[in-house]
Recover the amino acids of this structure.
């Protein structure tokens, strides 16, 4: 977007990855990455989920198995930044959610699929 300051290296290393994780405050999400988009979905219970949303994202590899991921929807009313630690199976979030709710939490990755390599907690 005009006026944005975006620099530094980006990566598509997460393309094909799918993660299911639960935050310490309770919400459980599913993320799936392509080269250009991330699809996220709140998992309400084993048989029910909220509608999925797909948005463009940016990712930066901080070191092996550690990524900073960021997205903002076109409305710019929500902002999400994740630090995904694949080795520790953790996700740290900082975000501004609908209703101007601050979201700052830690999640445990319960399911992880990275292309040909699948693992479950």
């Amino acid at each position: 977007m005009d006026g944005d300051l975006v620099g530094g290296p980006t990566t598509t290393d997460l393309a094909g990855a799918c993660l299911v994780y639960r935050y310490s405050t309770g919400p459980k999400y599913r993320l799936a990455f392509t080269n250009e988009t991330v699809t996220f979905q709140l998992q309400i219970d084993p048989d029910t989920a909220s509608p999925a949303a797909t948005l463009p994202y940016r990712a930066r590899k901080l070191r092996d198995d550690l990524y900073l991921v960021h997205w903002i929807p076109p409305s710019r009313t929500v902002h999400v930044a994740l630090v995904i630690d694949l080795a520790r199976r953790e996700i740290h979030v900082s975000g501004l959610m609908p209703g101007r709710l601050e979201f700052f939490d830690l999640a445990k990755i319960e399911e992880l699929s990275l292309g040909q390599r699948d693992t479950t907690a």
